[in-house]
Protein: HIRAN domain-containing protein
Amino acid sequence: MPSHTLLEASASSVDPPAQELLVLWQHPLSREILPVGRLSFNGTTYGFDYTVAASRIEGFRALSGLGMLGQHTDSALLPAIFRQRVMEPTRPDFAAYVGTLGLSAADATPWEQILESGGGRAGDTLQFMEMPVVRGGYARARFFANGVRHIPGHVAVIAGHTLVTSEENHEHALQSLAPGDIVSVVAEEANKVDSQAALVTASGTPIGWVPRLLAPAFRRLLSSRPVELSVVRRNGPESPSHLRLVLELNAAAPSGFTFDPAGDWNAI
Structure:
């Protein structure tokens, strides 16, 4: 479990919880993060479906307790493979832990714990992301900033200019953020790991990346207009780096825009 550093929560944390999450799986060889399932919750029943992407992964094996690919699963309880990522309220450190997620002990349901923590565990291959949507002409996505610990010393090329961020400047930029603050997304050029990389910057200082799964969609948005994100939560420096910053996109979407043009996230 993450350390118990207090999270700052914005007003958006009182919004109704998301009803569907993408289940992400890290390929053991390529280390690529792939969307293999869709986990939903309607208030009483959990539903799970494998995605088209899962059916395209050579050698991918069905997740424990969730049937075969193409089989829909319903359950009154959070499936056991996901329940392992939830802390029981009987634990003495329960209130402190859910506090790091911006939740109170009274209303920290299993679903909200997974939503707010991303469900990741050290050495594990699974994590979760709120399902990005396009609704009413607006693109909305909510996610953790990726690669935060890799920013210090990283050589970034932005609009033809090379920028190297020191650890001190990086931490100062993070610590200066508060819920509701606006940060920018910029296309990173010549990234050797991801040709579609999209950096998140605060007042010009790189602080992390848009998740690689979403980067192509953000690059399409950037091709027509600037893209900004609002800070939902900012965690302290003692917390795990993958939980440092929760961001939200709520921007006008170009006609025909979709986060998943190939249909990889569709259920099979």
